Amino acid sequence: MTDTRGGADLMAPAPTSTAPTNTAPTSAPTGAAPVAWRRIGPSPIRVFPIALSGTNFGWRADESTTTAILDRFLELGGSFIDTADSYAGGRSEIMIGNWMRRRGVRDGLTIATKIGKSPDNPGLSARAIDAAVSASLDRLGVSSIDVLYLHIDDEAVPFEETLAAVDELIRDGRVRAFGGSHHTPDRLLEARIAAGQLGVAPMIALQNHYNLLHRTEYEGGLARVAAQLDLGVMPRFALEAGFLTGKYRSRADLERHGRGSEAARHLTRRGIRILHALDRVAADLDSSVATVSLAWLLSRPRVVAPVVSVSGADQLDAIMAAPALALGRHHLTELDRASA
Predict the structure, then answer these.
(1) Helices marked H in 141-288
(2) What pLDDT score does 261 carry?
(3) CA distances from 220 to 225, 227, 228, 320 (A)
(4) Where are the domains of the chain?
(5) CA distance 312 to 69
(6) pLDDT at 327 over 50
(7) Fewer CB in 10 Å around end: N or C, the chain?
(8) Nearest to 289 by CA among 257, 315, 252
(9) Helices 269-285 and 289-298, interaxial angle, to 10°?
(10) Contact indicator for 218, 160 with CB cutoff of 8 Å
């Protein structure tokens, strides 16, 4: 039985390529829906429906903090870790790799990384792709990357060259599947046509900016193409720099937490209206604003796993509760109206 809202297999087993120890649906609060692993597009890869971002690792989070975050994520049933070769100059991948090796948990995880933005191997030429993936595999200490994202849309390189290079990595077993990021609907269609003509592996995933505050980019065209191409969608900036946790409601909040224009630009009538709607739904469900924000994303078509970054392990409890929170139709309607 499949939940077509997010590509979820309601009886999803562990990812087929490994034998994770944390594959059973996690326990849910009383009255909440059970957590189901979701399949990424047409691939056999299934994941817990929250992706932990490594963007802070090696930058805002030192090694001890990173270890605590990753340990708690795993403890709460997490399986999907998202990083990039450009995060903290590659240190994010190194820290994730070191943690996996110390804990001996690689087989229970789905690892995604992104290439194209690193100054060491910029762009998406065949040479850059091969060098970037080799470097990421070394930093992560793994033999294969589960999901490789093209972190940019490099229009200076023909899609045929990029797709052939990625396909070779898939054939070699160094990459299992791949997806796009920062691609327009037209470019995603162009990539699928080129893949068909070449007879190479197509994209199966899409990572894009999408949340209650930022809806137009995805819903305005990407959603239609994602459905047409059977892409699994991983919304990035899922909590909009923390604004959708309810943490920032005034200029004083921004100053107290050391945040600048990134969150300040949402202190508008629309932004506050969305927070008030989140407050009401959270109170009705005895939940948190962050949990409700992510539960709304998980109700959207094609969404597999929102990509969420945290600065401390204590923030994960609210985040990891989102897949088990069942929003009623009236809750979804209220949030849709507030964010329209």
Answers:
(1) 159-172, 185-198, 216-217, 223-229, 251-257, 261-264, 269-285
(2) 63
(3) 10, 13, 14, 28
(4) 2-249+288-328
(5) 6
(6) yes
(7) N
(8) 315
(9) 90
(10) no
> Contact 303/6 with Cβ under 8 angstroms?
yes
Q: Which amino acid is it at 200?
A: V
Q: Rounded to an integer, what distance in angstroms lies between the CA atom of residue 238 and that of residue 243?
A: 10
**Cβ contact 290:239 at 8 Å:** yes
**Are 73 and 319 a contacting pair, CB within 8 Å?**
no
Given this model, what pLDDT does residue 25 score? 43
Residue 56 vs residues 112, 127, 144, 298, 337: alpha-carbon distances, Å: 15, 28, 23, 23, 33
* Residue at 137: amino acid letter: L
d(CA 150, CA 165): 12
Q: What is the pLDDT of residues 189-225, one digit of tens each?
A: 999 999 999 999 999 999 999 999 999 999 989 999 9
Instruction: Check if the beta carbon of residue 201 is closer than 8 Å to that of residue 177.
Output: yes
Q: How many CB atoms lie within 10 A of CB 336?
A: 14
pLDDT value of residue 250: 84
pLDDT digits (tens, 9 = 90+) for 218-258: 998 999 999 999 999 999 999 999 999 999 888 888 777 76
Residue 232 β-bridge partners = 205
Those residues whose C-beta lies under 8 Å from the C-beta of residue 223, and which sit 6 or more positions away, are 300, 301, 302
- Separation of first and last alpha carbons in the chain: 32
230: phi then psi, degrees, rounded to nearest 5: 60, 50
Q: Which two tokens stand for residue 176?
A: 């299992």
User: Does domain 2-249+288-328 sit in CATH 3.40.190.10?
Assistant: no
pTM, rounded to two decimals:
0.89
Average pLDDT, whole number, for the chain? 90
- Does residue 309 carry a pLDDT above 80? yes
Residue corresponding to tokens 């054939």: 171
